[in-house]
Amino acid sequence: MYRWLFFALTVLLTQELQGQDGAAAPGRIEQIEEQRSEKAATLTGSKPAETGGITSRIGHFASLAPISFDVGGLGPGAGPAVNAVLRKNAYDGHLPVRTWGHLEIHGFYTVGTGAELRNISKDGVEFDLEGSYSDSPQLNYYGPGQDSSIHNRTDFRREDTLFNFRVGFATHHDMTEACRVGGLLQHVGPGTNERLATTQSVFGPAQAPGIDGQSSYVIGGCLAQFDRRDFPEDPHKGTYVYAAFDRYYAASLTQFSFYRASVVAEQYIPFLNRKRVIALRARTELNPHSEDEVVPFYLQPTLGSDMDLRGYRRYRFYDENVLSLNAEYRWEIGSGFDMALFFDGGNVYHRPRQIGSTELKGSAGFGLRFKDLNQRRVIVRIDTGFSREGVQVWLRVPELF
Fold this sequence. Notes:
Helix content is about 10%, strand content about 50%. It is mostly beta strands and about 400 residues long. The chain has a single domain (about 1-395), classed as Beta Barrel (Porin). Strand 18 (about 375-385) and strand 19 form a beta hairpin.
């Protein structure tokens, strides 16, 4: 009941606050994106002919609506969702405050609030304080490792309360850096999907570490992001790299402490007047720790989603380390409409040194992209993936990767 009350209040107040504040003052990152878009728009032959197509009109309407809707794929933790964001700018835009909510089918929801302190120096230093609560009542777990069976599908619930303080630096036109410290409180219990067995009834602590007890965490680390894509929400050319290193310290159960190194790299190669694009993406997540420590199963990286191994079910594979590779060939077949062929490879590993020691699992398929040409963004993505375990159809609005 309370989450529905939150959404109702947010929707009612958003219109009023937008009328009071006018246009929000852009921060350093927003200014960089505006400059990049203006520069890309001047490139000859890079922009398709503008039309008053239906996809552009839909995208324009969605950007003005006080609430938004999306589809984050299919399966547990995804599906149709409604979002609401309440924003207030204080001190001439130097102190933006926001409150948000995200509600999905099957009772998945997130609520949070945060405040930023930005544009306070020429060096682009920003401070961000944020708190959120998430409830995921139907998450699937198939067992540990790459040899887990699709027939061992179980259901668990995870609740996360996160507090985060972040300091960001825009040291270069295309580079952002940040460091953070925060706290994470978690609770794991039986899932609410009555058609599946609960994870607690099938797997013990040996197969699902942390199933019998959860710890609160103190998290600290830094990240760097390099972005030279022409249009971040519909890239045709450029490079994107994200790297982060964090320490997860388990305050109450120290055997669940670990380090986490995450890297994502993307490369976009255009040809034939940018109407054809080869998109390459690689992701790895490593979680090193001492011999007497272990990563709880509910914090382990997974494979199987609309982003990787699209021929497998969501959250199909769990383990402490992961490697994912994607390759796509996209071509424009009409104004605001692209098609794509893709191949995904990847696997999970118990130790970082095991990466590359076994054959990658693979999936292949095709997809459709519907675009808003005015805002240079993808507003609908549909992918169909094939694997040895069957066929998966993914519908996502609006992110491309």
